[in-house]
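Weekly modeling sync, notes
Attendees: AB, CL, MP (scribe)

Item 1: holo prediction request
CL wants a bound-state model with biotin before deciding which constructs to order. AB pointed out that an apo prediction alone won't tell us much about the pocket. Agreed to run with the ligand included and paste results into these notes for async review.

Input as submitted:
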Amino acid sequence: MRGEANFLVPDEIKAGLGTNVIGREVYCFRETKSTQTVAHELAQGGAEEGTVVLAEEQTAGKGRMGRDWFSPPGEGIWASVILHPSTAPSQMGRVLLACAVAVAEAIRKETQLPVLIKWPNDLLIRERKAGGILTEMTAEVGLVKFVVVGIGINVNVDRERFPEELRKRATSLKEEMGKEVSRLHLFQEILRTLEEYCLLLKDRQFEKVANRWRELSTTLERQIRVSFQGEIIEGQATDIDSDGALLVRLDSGFIKRLVGGDVTVLEEQ
Ligand code: BTN
């Protein structure tokens, strides 16, 4: 069935997708509170790996660090994908970075926009946030049972649509391109690229993912401030390690390893 108006529908998304796992099952909603919640319930109920949940609008979209995620109707990609990476919870950073690289690559390919990644997974264009990724895992005795990867991309959102408090920091692909972007083609490319990067992780090739992340990073070699669990640290971001943690050199020379947090870049570009 073709999408009514501009609604994305499962058959259209699956048509010509060419993936083996990601997108085997696709659910599309006109409106939901959060695709994360729906996907989580499906995964708990035994949904297979690669199941995708997409909504035209989220009324309670979730961002990282307990924030809200602005998800207006028909103007973005608000979607969650269920993954079953056979990995320990301590290696979830790898999954997170792989997803960020996959989505950044897909946007680059579809739009040629200079998308960069702020650690761990903010998608920035010219220093403004165009999208983000939220990974939520459910684990059992040292093994990840499933991960729900939430993908939020401001595709065709006009600047004035953003709430006042976001307007200075947020952007959309449409604002950066000066024209609308096909959500269907972009979403299909995201699903394909996500599958490629999941395969790299399964083949234990995280170093390839890490190298591409380094190339796309807007964080490395910059002076940053990170707040995490009530602690604030400042230093120079030097690298990521083999688990995707950020390494920050403090003024004392000590290298601090960070597995989460909110990064602010301190120096001017
Ligand atoms: C971030 O804070 O940068 C991550 C944002 C993730 C938003 C997406 S939109 C689809 C999925 N459902 C949600 O409620 N959140 C994620």
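Recorded for review: Helices lie at 10-14, 35-44, 92-111, 164-167, 173-177, 183-202, 206-216.
Action items: CL to compare against the apo run; MP to circulate these notes.
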